[in-house]
Amino acid sequence: METTRNWLLPLLLAAGQVGLLWPGVGPDDTPGGPALLCVLAALALETAGLGQRRTVPVRALACTLVTRVLGGLAWPDGYLGLGTLITLYSVAVRCPVPVTVRAVAAVVGAEWVLCAVEEGPRPALLSDMALALGVYLLCAGLGEARRQWLAGRLVAARRLAGAEHARRLAGDHERRRLARELHDVSAHHLTSVVVTVDAARRLQDSRPDLATEALSFAERTGAETLTALQRLVGVLRDTDRPDHRPMSGRIEELVAGFGRLGRPVTARIPGDLAGPSAEAIHGIVREALTNALRYAPGAAARVLVTRADGLLRLTVENAPPRAAAQGAGGLGAGRGVAGMRERAAAAGGELTAGPTPEGGWRVCATLPDGAEAGRSDEHGRRRDVLREQRLADPALVSVSVILPVSCALALTEDWSAADRRAALPALLVVCGLLVLHALPLLWRRRAPWAVLLAVLATAWPGPAAVAGWHLRSDVAEFLAAGTLAETLAVYAVAAYGQGPGRTWPAPAAATLGTAGALAAVAWSDGSVAGEPTGAGGAVLLTFFLSVLLAPVFAAVWGAGLFVRRRRLRALAYDEFAFASSMWQADRAAEAERQRLAATLRDAVLERTQALVGAARRGDLAEVAGAARAALAAMREMLHSMGDDGEPGGRLAPSPAVGDLEALCRALRSGGRDVRLRGLPEAGRDLPPSVQVSVYRIVEAALGAGDVGPARVTLRRWRGTLRITVTGVRLAVAGPVAERLRVQAAAGEGRIVCEPAGTLRVVLPAGAVPAPVQEVSP
């Protein structure tokens, strides 16, 4: 399919050019001898260049530019040279704006040199040069607009791929998040209870008052643990509310809580911490101080957060322990430092931890400053808006001026030198009016209605200039060529105006305004086509022009609505598919939360409730046993959730082509007739990224919701893997088709969705980059 798209147009152009060489079809002065050979060589070279316009557009443009000069010199009247326009469009679509500008300059320069050689010093030279400039600018502007549309579609595809990735891993991510929170909250609270109660039991003979404080602390901390755990899993709805307190205050409150346990803790924290980095700092400080409490009881600790160069630097340091920690072994879940690194990495930073030369422990983290990042993002968005349509709109404005001017210059070719000198001031005035008339089109995307009104208003200085300066009739009629500006303004209202159902007055207003302005020019001049006219003739001319212009403006308005509808439909498909993926991700995460809630209730919450009850009864030994039992249950639960202490956790391996057999067996066991052909030959020696893409595409197609028989065929051919899936009518349209296109594009492949319910996908069988949907968004 891609080969056909690349070569169909070049072959059609070559056939048309060869047809012009046939006697009696093209111009009378057909080339002969060496000139004919030059034309045929240029035609062959142009066809070869056009075939490569999608892969190497700049090289293809250089090739067609050479053939344009060679064919134009060999056969000036008959060689078309349309390949230059097509390759320039490809350059604008696939290359940045600076490259496109240089390409336009090179093409226009070569075209002007060719015009100068062909025409010589004649008045028609300026007309041809202006026409060439306008056509090439229009071609580049359309290509730039297409490039921006494709760039937007690529962003939407990546966004959808990220949503697909989040949907597939929502359960794993939610399980890891809950495991991290369970570790941080439970380990912090329950470890504090164990350390405090053990200290009170050891010192109850020398300090009896410490037992009362320990029981009160255990009761209060146990209740906080219950509330925190219930909030995490949504067991109690009235506690599942966001904490709107400033993050700096919450960190200071956390540090003060550790200070109440009897250890000296100092802190210096900025008062405006916010965002993900502040959340990460809160979790890292909590974990670091908990570890200090566990392994260095009684040692002084210091918490320092500084801001510099758009970064937040956190340091948590504790002094060496005063004595060997007793009873601390086995309290942790075995992943404290790994959990802190995971938090820092999730916020876009990094963390290091290790002993100090004095024998203590230091945790250092570097995180992005949320406030600075927010300001940078805001400035970035503003710059993108100002750089929007850097070439397309200026090109259209230039064309709407250049084309009328080139037509005017072409009409003056038959004038005498004296007439041209006499008409020069009038021609300059007309050119100035045309520029003023087309200038508002620069803002046609941002304010289309205002641009239409401005274009209609700037058409009326023409009649005033004709009446005030008594412009010649053969010069005043050039003002009619400015109607192109009204056409572009009507299209802009239909394509970009708010409320497509309310844009219908645009063609009517353009028809009446344009017809009235042209009739006013004729009435001010006093003649139409050399015949005298008055006020009555101007009215009749207005009616006649309205009848002629109304279908034109209506057709342009309809074209704008059609393009608008197609683009909005594509965007709606993107939004629907994205929302569907996110909804499924939410459902998967909710199911994981419900499953973990039941496990948590049985494993940890009951033991924590026993801890609170024992503290209220005043039994220190029972409190210590219940706290240790809750810690052990929490640790066992974390390991059962697959959280083995590594930042990545344990995940299932990526699927491969060989797993398609298991997928089809599962569908057949569910009652659906699914047949697979082409394994294992087609799947042999495929790169892992291609295998993942193949599995995901087949999985999405078969999982679209069809219940009838389906066939999956895999075939290797010329370095590609061809996948054909039949019997999937629900997968060839709607959000499923959009997801399949994203997955095929992520694997650098092509996909064709046939209405009969057949999918045809072609993927490269060699090594390609990892698919987008397999990368974390």
Please tell me about this protein's structure.
This protein has 777 residues and is an alpha+beta fold. Among the domains are: 124 residues, Histidine kinase-like ATPase, C-terminal domain (Heat Shock Protein 90, 2-Layer Sandwich); 118 residues, Heat Shock Protein 90. The protein contains 23 helices and 12 strands. The strands form 3 sheets. Strands 1-2-3-5-4 form a 5-stranded mixed sheet. The chain has a 5-stranded mixed sheet with strand order 8-9-10-12-11, with helices on one face. A hairpin with a 2-residue loop joins strand 6 and strand 7. Helix 1 runs antiparallel to helix 2, helix 3 packs antiparallel against helix 4 and helix 6 packs antiparallel against helix 7.
Features:
single chain, alpha+beta, Heat Shock Protein 90, 5-stranded mixed sheet, 23 helices, EC 2.7.13.3, transmembrane, kinase
The tally of strands reads 12
Name the structural class: alpha+beta
Would you tell me which CATH topology of the domain at 245-368 applies? Heat Shock Protein 90
The geometry reads as: elongated
What is the correct CATH architecture of the domain at 245-368?
Answer: 2-Layer Sandwich
The DSSP helix count reads 23
What distance lies between the first and last C-alpha atoms, to the nearest angstrom?
32 Å
Whole-angstrom Rg? 38 Å
Mean pLDDT: 77
Q: Order of strands across the widest beta sheet?
A: 1-2-3-5-4
The CATH H-level superfamily of the domain at 245-368 is Histidine kinase-like ATPase, C-terminal domain
| Biggest sheet details | 5 strands, mixed
Strand content: 5-15%
